[in-house]
TrEMBL record:
The lineage of its organism: Bacteria, Bacillati, Actinomycetota, Actinomycetes, Kitasatosporales. SUPFAM superfamilies: Acetoacetate decarboxylase-like. This is DUF2071 domain-containing protein. It comes from Streptomyces griseoaurantiacus. Pfam families: DUF2071. It comes from the Bacteria.
């Protein structure tokens, strides 16, 4: 899939469009903070894989800095691994849509604190995982995330986030659904762009205040500077997640 013709995106749905009967991976995403900035779609189009274009909401696309805890990653239906499968992670992600109208995310970087999962993610899925020194700490209604990159770099890439958790959101806005209800990722799995689906319960979202943000992960990921204040800050206690098998551009599941 190499065309960049403008696709007709599928609707944004707060619930997963389909259950995954045979998940490839299971895991939990916990203590998530979503921090987003608005961007001109033309600024991020060159950063997306072939066959995808920026997904937009009211004419703007977004870059997200998403910090969380990965918990008990497991293959197929096996129980999640308690140590190697549990670790902090911080992602820089963009929003994409392909010629089939599948909305997804594109990861520009994925910092994680366990070396073995980093190596597996890079080798098996060709994802931009990097090994970092990381921590997630709670103090009352404050959640803090720290990340300092180790390998492969660039050395010195880091983030320091502190978010104050607020009240639950009874009915998220259209933009809040757009930024969080993403049911797959686009990535060059097979030398061409594939799509890896996921499914999980509807996000329990909270209002949040960004108390501290010191980071250069966006610049290290090739994003333009001078983005100003974020347009959205959200928190979620988390969800259990199932990831399906990557689909080739034609939508045929891989063996």
């Amino acid at each position: 899939m190499t065309s960049r013709a403008t696709p007709v995106p599928e609707p944004v749905t707060p619930d997963a469009p389909a259950a995954l009967k045979r998940p490839l991976l299971t895991q939990e995403w916990l203590d998530l903070s979503f921090v987003h900035w608005a961007l001109d779609p033309d600024a991020v189009a060159p950063l997306l894989p072939a066959g995808t274009v920026p997904d937009v909401y009211e004419g703007r696309t977004y870059v997200g800095l998403v910090a969380f805890r990965m918990h008990r990653v497991g293959w197929l239906r096996s129980p999640g691994v308690p140590y190697l499968g549990s670790f902090p992670e911080t992602n820089v992600r963009l929003y994409s849509v392909d010629a089939h109208g599948r909305r997804g995310v594109v990861f520009r970087s994925m910092d994680a604190s366990r070396l073995l999962p980093v190596l597996m993610g890079r080798i098996a899925f060709r994802l931009p995982y990097v090994w970092s020194r990381m921590a997630v700490r709670h103090r009352g209604d404050l959640v803090g995330y720290t990340s300092t990159r180790r390998l492969p770099g660039p050395r010195g890439a880091h983030s320091r986030l502190v978010v104050r958790r607020g009240e639950p959101i009874a009915e998220p806005s259209g933009l809040e659904h757009f930024l969080t209800a993403r049911w797959g990722m686009h990535n060059a799995f097979f030398g061409d762009t594939g799509f890896l689906p996921n499914a999980h319960p509807r996000w329990p979202l909270h209002r949040a205040e960004l108390v501290r943000c010191e980071e250069n992960l966006l610049a290290a990921a090739g994003l333009p500077g001078g983005l100003g204040e974020p347009v959205s800050v959200l928190y979620s206690p988390g969800v259990p997640v199932a990831l399906g098998r990557p689909a080739r551009p034609a939508g045929i599941p891989t063996p």
